[in-house]
Amino acid sequence: xxxxxxxxxxxxxxxxxxxxxxxxxxxxxxxxxxxxxxxxxxxxxxxxxxxxxxxxxxxxxxxxxxxxxxxxxxxxxxxxxxxxxxxxxxxxxxxxxxxxxxxxxxxxxxxxxxxxxxxxxxxxxxxxxxxxxxxxxxxxxxxxxxxxxxxxxxxxxxxxxxxxxxxxxxxxxxxxxxxxxxxxxxxxxxxxxxxxxxxxxxxxxxxxxxxxxxxxxxxxxxxxxxxxxxxxxxxxxxxxxxxxxxxx
Length: 248
Ligand SMILES: Nc1ncnc2c1ncn2[C@@H]1O[C@H](COP(=O)(O)OP(=O)(O)OP(=O)(O)O)[C@@H](O)[C@H]1O
Ligand SMILES: [Mg+2]
Hints:
- This protein has a single domain (3-116, 182-244), classed as Rossmann fold, CATH 3.40.50.
- 35% of the residues lie in helices and 26% in strands.
- The chain has helices at 3-13, 67-74, 97-107, 123-133, 139-149, 165-176, 195-212, 223-226; strands at 25-36, 39-51, 56-60, 82-87, 90-91, 108-111, 183-187, 215-220, 231-236, 239-244.
- The radius of gyration is 17 Å and the shape is globular.
């Protein structure tokens, strides 16, 4: 894996070279309350966060603090109980469903805590999926270049079970980047990985951030991972507090 790989992929894949490439995300007074019968869990209580275009932010917090909840709200996959999530200044939930899906597909790339790979598809077929869904031309060629950009040119026809954890994480990254998003959201991208492989994935995220101006938000309980972000925000019991900023 080298910087050259990602650079060449961004030349192939990105037609946006301007500073407006990265997406901005704003969380405004957000509450998320889960209701299961009589039981209510307040997962976020009045969270505020401004992430500017091109930032690399890590969200840290203990297990159960609300990280994945925030993640799914930022990804537009769930609705806040109160408050707003804005991407590039547009309130996600106020958009009609079709527009919201298009915005999600075109601007937001995600990798999930539990992994996004379909076990019965090869690495190549997994990466082809999001490209097919968005109706991109030359799906096969693009998927091959994406996998090449994450250093997996030799593993195109392997299924997830035949790949190491780090390789699977890289396929997931290639999928998240398929539609050339403005923000990459990664929930525990290095969760199950050994230290060295985790550092490799982290380096790739850094390259994407620096070389493409992609906004990167990682959610993690791993302090070593968080330490490499430009800014760290902590969630404690559903509330967000700045932990460290580049200018601090
Ligand atoms: N779908 C749901 N229904 C009910 N409660 C939920 C749901 N999802 C999360 N919760 C609760 O909301 C709180 C926050 O959960 P969340 O998954 O956001 O934590 P997390 O910080 O991502 O934890 P971890 O580090 O273990 O992944 C927890 O108390 C959890 O039990
Ligand atoms: Mg989580």
